[in-house]
């Protein structure tokens, strides 16, 4: 089974968190789910480099990475992921959705109203408890 190393940005602004919705895709179980922007780490990259690259590619967003938050291991039916999440802030104020179909800025206490990718649930729970 394939395994992916993934990075995800928890972008905080004014006490709200950026949540982005995936498009339809190959796998039903992650199609249209909400996630934190990011993606797969390429072989020559550090986690931080991958995160900065993905945020520019996906959202035209320059970010500052503040700290590591939580690493999650999750097995989906067709592949597994190790996802490293980081608390970040955005350095520019407009974002352009290039791959996702929607976004929301939510207070951490409201994160559970969205339909999250399963691998994200431990991150969502920790944010709801701590923020
Ligand atoms: N970026 C991100 N990916 C997540 C989250 N939760 C989660 O299960 N994933 C999964 C979905 C994908 O299988 C993988 C991230 O890969 P990706 O976003 O670069 O890749 P993708 O499947 O959309 O597309 P591709 O690059 O393979 O064409 O991790 C999350 O919060 N953020």
TrEMBL record:
GO BP term, example: DNA repair
UniProt keyword Cell membrane present: no
Cofactor names: Mg(2+)
Residue ranges annotated for the Nudix hydrolase domain, each copy included: 2-129
Key word DNA damage present: yes
EC number: 3.6.1.55
EC primary class: hydrolase
Family: Belongs to the Nudix hydrolase family.
Pfam family for this entry, one: NUDIX
Keyword terms: DNA damage, DNA repair, DNA replication, Hydrolase, Magnesium, Metal-binding, Mutator protein
Catalysed transformations (reactions): 8-oxo-dGTP + H2O = 8-oxo-dGMP + diphosphate + H(+)
GO-annotated molecular function: 8-oxo-7,8-dihydrodeoxyguanosine triphosphate pyrophosphatase activity; 8-oxo-7,8-dihydroguanosine triphosphate pyrophosphatase activity; 8-oxo-dGDP phosphatase activity; 8-oxo-GDP phosphatase activity; metal ion binding
Record-linked PROSITE patterns: NUDIX, NUDIX_BOX
Name under which the protein is recorded: 8-oxo-dGTP diphosphatase
């Amino acid at each position: 089974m394939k395994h992916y190393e993934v990075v995800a940005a928890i972008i905080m602004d004014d006490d709200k968190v950026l949540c982005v919705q995936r498009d339809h895709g190959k796998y039903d179980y992650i199609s249209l789910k909400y996630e934190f922007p990011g993606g797969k780490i390429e072989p020559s990259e550090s986690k931080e480099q991958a995160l900065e690259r993905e945020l520019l590619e996906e959202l035209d967003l320059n970010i500052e990475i503040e700290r590591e938050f939580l690493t999650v291991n999750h097995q989906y039916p067709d592949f597994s992921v190790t996802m490293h999440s980081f608390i970040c802030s955005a350095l520019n104020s407009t974002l352009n959705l290039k791959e996702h179909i929607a976004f929301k800025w939510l207070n951490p206490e409201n994160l559970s109203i969205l339909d999250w990718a399963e691998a994200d649930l431990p991150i969502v729970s920790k944010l709801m408890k701590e923020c």
